[in-house]
């Protein structure tokens, strides 16, 4: 005789949606900061006789796309899990997004993104 595992209580859709919206705002703020970096470096470049290199545009674009991609991944992985797992996935995603943003600033800085 086989015993089946007890069914987990399903998280209501409105809770999952509310959680996604709240954490989505944090991820949107990270993406907005990356857009601010692009604008700041563009203004810095416009005051000098330099330009943003192709490598610089790629790095700055990755800075914008990472928070969006990490949010979508956390949402996709967490939508069928319990509430605690969803929160932990979003918090982990925010940490990954912050680390990538800091790595971009620390490793490349404004000087290596210019030609």
Characterization of this structure:
With 115 residues, the chain is an all-alpha fold. The chain has one domain (13-113). It contains three helices and no strands. Helix 1 (13-46) runs antiparallel to helix 2 (54-78), helix 1 packs parallel to helix 3 and helix 2 packs antiparallel against helix 3 (83-107). The radius of gyration is 19 Å and the shape is elongated. 16% of the residues are buried. The chain crosses the membrane at residues 12-32, 52-75, 87-110. Keywords: Membrane, Transmembrane, Transmembrane helix.
Q: Which key features would you list for this structure?
A:
elongated; membrane; 115 residues; mainly alpha
Q: What is the number of E strands?
A: 0
- Give, in order, the helices and strands: HHH
Number of helices: 3
Largest sheet geometry: none
Q: How many domains, as an integer?
A: 1
Gyration radius (Cα, Å) is: 19 Å
Oligomeric description of these chains:
single chain
Helix content: over 70%
Distance between the termini: 71 Å
Unreliable runs = none
Query: What's the shape?
Result: elongated
- How much β-strand is present in the residues? under 5%
Global structural class: mainly alpha
